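Researcher: Structure prediction, please.
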Amino acid sequence: MYRLITRLIPGRIREHLYSTLAYSRVKVNKQKFLGFVLISSLGLALGLSLLISRLFHISFFVTLGLSIIVLELGIYFSFSLKADATAKFVESILPDALQLMSSNLRAGLTTDKALLLSARPEFGVLSEEINEIGKKIALGEDIGKSMTEMTGKFKSERLKKTFLLIVSGLRSGGQLTDLLDQTADNLRQERFLDEKIRTNVLMYVIFIFAAIGFGAPILFGLSSFLISVLETNLSMVEIPQTSAIPITFSQINVSSSFIITFAIISLLTSSVLGSLVLGLISRGKEKFGLKFIPLLVVFTLGMFFLSRFLIGSLLGGLFGLE
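Model: Predicted structure follows.
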């Protein structure tokens, strides 16, 4: 049944999901897993939609559509982030693996033996793939082909380019030890530059977080309080209808509840978009900011209601709102 449900997904999207699951090291039947995720998310979306529609009196079909979209995107991005985290880990230990392989070659070992002995337990998934390459070589498969196939299991262009360079060195018969040492040094320099760039943009991250987490909630809290003051006090003002006073007051059509609702929607939108900007600035991709969304939403709304409470406690008596 799960496989039949999976076949309902368009071909390109299905293949992309398969590759994402492979990159995230999911070792289950991908067709069954996707079908199970679809059915589970649909059932959970139905439950959430019933609860939200009853609590907030929102259309069931609207909440159902939004719940399905949010759940499916959340599951997809969780696996995508896991795949990126795995690739980042492999990239971080790759220079050490190359350096160790170079040392084994200098000790007089053959290329395949040097590669196999460079697989250390602390290398994690990279060690597993190196051992897999060793099994394929023992069965007579070309080492270059095995390395190329291994790079396709990780979502890392840096890993692919590195092993492509090694394979080219093997086929050209050059000094592989010097190539490995130079490649390891270049990878360490690139990593150092990445860390330096993240340090330089830290100020922008702090500024965006402060603007969204502190500035916007406090200003919205103050503005909503001022609307409450105007709504309460101006409703008690009575001006004689004489032609001598060229001032007229009309009814206030903007209520404080509308301002609060508008503020909450604006803060939620700015929190989501701000989180994506934080991910783009700090890590180079918007999806890395998804993990900041729950934290920023809770913090922003908390600051908004806290600022309203503090301003109302301090100034409520002065304006007759207590």
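Model: The two ends are 62 Å apart (CA to CA).
Researcher: Thanks, that helps.
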